[in-house]
TrEMBL record:
One of its GO terms (molecular function) is NADP binding. It comes from Microvirga flocculans. Belongs to the DapB family. Residues 4-127 form the Dihydrodipicolinate reductase N-terminal domain. This is 4-hydroxy-tetrahydrodipicolinate reductase. The gene is dapB.
Length: 271
């Protein structure tokens, strides 16, 4: 099979730069485009120089249409409004769209599902192997322990993160809810303040910490009568997400249009 031609959108972002580097370092793919928003000071710069990998002869542009038309896939860690717009373009171009963007709302997911009729969408709140494995473990533990084990999900991220709870915390919450055979929407408690009353049995609680340069820490706590089980993941470097995203794109190259997750990519969907 020929080299997969990939585009990075949000090229100047924390993840955008990591993605450019990961594409440049991975066999079987090549960077053919780098997109930033209109007015960005990096427009016209070489993507490789921007990411610190050396010249790649790919200039950053704010016009995705001609770039998508020449590509096989797009790597997207940007913001919800940008991601839904890029998904429509990926559908038009019938290419792979790997989505790491978090903070997506129900209306955004509806748009992504519509785009997945023509694009191969691979979306996950966390592209690392460790977190996706953790989600499988959480599902199993939640299915094994009854409601007398309270589930609380704790996350900490860097001070610049704009959404909460994190996409990963929600992914882990979904795994816990699936294990319990309940709907996360009905059972999640996303904040507590003041006289909240006692905890309802079966609730799945979320707690958010923000500060410093923390890449991403997540713990799922099962607090039962007289004991506590804690399952944790600590991301030490953003390259784990970027490498996962490139792996997802290569996996999606020969797939049919549809909506996929990182669990499909990693073969963990039946864990
Ligand atoms: N799923 C996963 O494994 C991971 C997901 N993430 C998620 O990825 C997203 C990005 O994170 P991070 O890199 O830290 O954030 P940054 O803010 O550093 O990067 C986002 C980039 O996207 C750009 N952007 C926004 N809108 C557009 C647009 N319409 N067109 C082109 N570029 C655009 C931003 O430009 P500007 O600054 O001008 O707005 C910025 O350069 C977040 O949602 C985060 O939670 C992060 C790590 C791992
Ligand atoms: O914004 C981040 O940085 C991260 N976002 C993702 C999330 O919301 O879970 C993944 C990772 O934890 C880093």
């Amino acid at each position: 099979m020929s080299e997969m031609r990939l585009v990075v959108v949000g090229a100047a972002g924390r993840m955008g730069r990591m993605l450019i580097k990961a594409v440049a370092e991975t066999e079987g793919c090549t960077l053919v485009g780098a997109i930033e928003r209109e007015g960005s000071p990096v427009l016209g710069q070489d993507a490789g120089l921007l990411a610190g990998t050396g010249l790649l002869d790919v200039d950053v542009t704010d016009d995705p249409l001609p770039v998508f038309a020449q590509a096989d896939g797009v790597l997207d860690f940007t913001a919800p409004a940008a991601t839904t717009a890029f998904a429509a373009l990926a559908a038009q171009a019938r290419i792979v769209h790997v989505i790491g963007t978090t903070g997506l709302q129900e209306a955004d997911f509806t748009k992504l599902e519509a785009a997945a009729r023509h694009a191969r969408i691979i979306q996950s709140g966390n592209m690392s192997l460790g977190v996706n494995l953790l989600a499988g473990l959480v599902r199993k533990v939640a299915a094994t322990l009854g409601e007398d084990y309270d589930i609380e999900i704790l996350e900490m991220h860097h001070r610049m993160k704009v959404d909460a709870p994190s996409g990963t915390a929600l992914l882990l919450g979904e795994a816990a809810a699936e294990g319990r055979k309940v709907s996360l929407k009905d059972r999640s408690v996303r904040s507590r303040d003041g006289h909240t009353g006692a905890r309802n049995p079966g609730d799945i609680g979320f707690a958010t910490l923000r500060g410093g340069t923390v890449v991403g820490d997540h713990s799922v706590i099962f607090a039962g009568p007289g004991e506590r089980l804690e399952l944790s993941h600590r991301a030490e470097d953003r390259s784990i997400f970027a490498r996962g995203a490139v792996k997802a794109a290569l996996w999606g190259f020969d797939k049919k249009p549809g909506y996929y997750t990182m669990a499909n990519v990693l073969g963990l969907d039946r864990l």
